[in-house]
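Lab notebook page, bench 4
Experiment: in silico fold of construct C2
Operator: M.H.
Input chain length: 214 residues
Purpose: comparison with the prior construct
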Amino acid sequence: MLIAIDGPAGAGKSTVARGLAAELGFTYLDSGAMYRCVGLLSIEHPGAEPGELARGARIELPRGEGGRPGAVVLAGRDVTAAIRTPEVSEAASAVAADAAVREALVSVQRELIAGGDWVAEGRDIGTVVAPDADLKIFLTADPAERARRRAAELGADERSVLAEQALRDERDSAREHSPLRAAPGAVLIDSTGLSGEQVIARIAALARRAPGPS
């Protein structure tokens, strides 16, 4: 079974997807980590063609203990913390608009989720990577709530995060290739005022009622 969770930054996708995978015993795919890796490479190799960086990137997303996500490994080095900085977030959003980058990473993502039970999260899982997913979720939240969560996570100024978030939302939604939008048939869940546990429980209930792969 494949569950696709899409939505804007700060909606709680990563927290919910990790928790849902653990709840159901599925494998978790953080597609955003892959774009962050390419974003990191673009910072480290200024002037390089993003598509070339994506095609040459050696990204590993091994499973940790108990099926939990392990470290993000790029070319043999642990970049789990390095790819979560605001600078890399901006770079990741920029390279994600590149058609060649998306083509390279989408191909890898499709290979990963071709078999087994997965919870995959990102911004185009249900629309591009896996439009035939058994359950598609579009997870969102009020912009102020999303910024508050992100600021708390980063220890950053909430107003600055809100301003940066607005720019990123516009870029993700307006980009020519794989714009951020709810997939046809996706269940819309607004996580404003809900805990991660409540969202996980809601999606888990939907998954248990879903017919599964045909």
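Observations: The first strand starts at residue 2 and ends at 6. The chain is about 50% helix and 15% strand.
Next step: discuss at group meeting.
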